[in-house]
Specification:
- The chain has 7 helices and 10 strands.
- It is of the alpha/beta class.
- The chain has one domain: Rossmann fold.
- The protein is globular.
- About 35% of the residues are buried.
Length: about 210
């Protein structure tokens, strides 16, 4: 593989963390019909894959955010991967819940952190960016300085691009929908006539049938 994006896409297809079914679309919780199903938690079951992803996150963070002081994972999908990254970098780790606990200390952020700490957020998958950016806002509300977010994969929806821009949060991903579809086409994972449907969905997912 020539690029990180291609290698990650190849791993996701190989371990079936990503499934492409243009003729038999999946239904998301939002009600959207989708020709793709992505479960990046499966990467944790494959040592070679999880190590590669961890190492690429570490390389990216060291290069772009050398001033980082804290790694935060977004619950639940990115907790394990975030902890692996923090361990490799020798940094403290916290994770951000989707909602505060309704008992005990009612924490939204779990772990030790200090106001003013410079944080990089680790996420597994970006769709519209809504839940990912909730974690960013929680960290900012706690006084942390969010340097940016890194994620394994993004669908590349324009809505997500706009949401991250509006939130003034930089997003870097190891791979994306374009790289995945290009590889699937090159390797014969999908038929040529299915590619147009896959590209059509990305443009207007809410109307896809």
């Amino acid at each position: 593989m020539n690029t990180v994006a291609e290698q990650v896409a190849a791993y996701l297809l190989d371990i079936k963390a990503v499934k492409l079914e243009p003729s038999h679309p999946f239904t998301w919780a939002s009600g959207w019909k989708s020709p793709i199903y992505c479960d990046n938690r499966k990467t944790l079951s494959y040592p070679q894959v999880r190590t590669y992803i961890r190492d690429q996150f570490v390389r990216l963070i060291k290069s772009k955010y050398p001033q980082v002081e804290l790694i935060a994972g977004v619950a639940t999908g990115a907790i394990a991967q975030g902890a692996l990254v923090a361990q490799e970098l020798g940094l403290p780790f916290v994770y951000v819940r989707s909602a505060a606990k309704n008992h005990g200390l009612e924490n939204l952020i779990e772990g030790e952190y200090k106001s003013g700490e410079k944080v990089v957020v680790v996420e597994d998958l970006i769709s519209t960016g809504g839940s990912s950016l909730q974690a960013v806002e929680a960290l900012r509300g706690a006084g942390c300085e969010v340097l940016g977010m890194v994620a394994i994969f993004t669908y590349g929806f324009q809505k997500a691009v706009d949401n991250f821009a509006n939130a003034r949060c930089v997003l870097d991903t190891l791979s994306d929908y374009n790289a995945l579809i290009d590889l699937a086409q090159k390797t014969g994972y999908v038929k040529p006539e299915e590619v147009s449907k896959l590209k059509e969905w990305r443009v207007s997912p809410e109307t896809y049938k």
